[in-house]
Amino acid sequence: KKIAVINIGEDYFQQAFQLANFLRTQNFNVEFFYESNLGKKMKKADKLGIDITIIFGEEEAKKNYYKLKLM
C-alpha cells in the first residue's frame, strides 16, 4: 500500500514529517506532500495512486489525532 502524509499549514510540517519518517522505518511506502494547498496535494496523491492519505493540521493537532482518508 502507498501512503501519503499531508500537512495543512506550515506550523504542522514538523509533526507530519516525523510521522512520514516513522512510517518509513516501519517499511511503509510513504510520500510526503508539503507544498501547495490541500486540494492540489490530494489531486497529486490520486494521480500517484496513493491508497491511504494521512492528514495533519490545526484541527488534528488540537484533538491529538491524524485524519485518514482511503483513496
Give a quick precis of the structure.
The protein is an alpha/beta fold. It has helices spanning 13-25, 38-47, 58-63; strands spanning 2-7, 29-33, 52-56, 67-70. The chain is built from three helices and four strands, in the order βαβαβαβ.
Secondary-structure-based class equals: alpha/beta
Distance from N terminus to C terminus (CA atoms, Å) equals 11 Å
Number of helices: 3
What is the alpha-carbon Rg in Å?
A: 11 Å
Task: Catalogue the unreliable spans.
Answer: none
Shape: globular
N-to-C series of helices and strands: EHEHEHE
- For the largest beta sheet, what order do the strands appear in spatially? 2-1-3-4
Question: Which percent bin holds the helix content?
Answer: 40-55%
Average per-residue pLDDT, rounded, comes to 93
Major sheet characteristics: 4 strands, mixed
Description:
It is a single chain. By secondary structure, the chain is of the alpha/beta class. 41% of the residues lie in helices and 28% in strands. It has three helices and four strands. It has helices spanning 13-25, 38-47, 58-63; strands at 2-7, 29-33, 52-56, 67-70. It has a four-stranded mixed beta sheet with strand order 2-1-3-4, with helices on both faces.
Quickly list its features.
3 helices, 71 residues, globular, single chain
Describe the protein's topology.
Elements: E1 2-7, H1 13-25, E2 29-33, H2 38-47, E3 52-56, H3 58-63, E4 67-70
Parallel strand pairs: 1-2, 1-3
Antiparallel strand pairs: 3-4
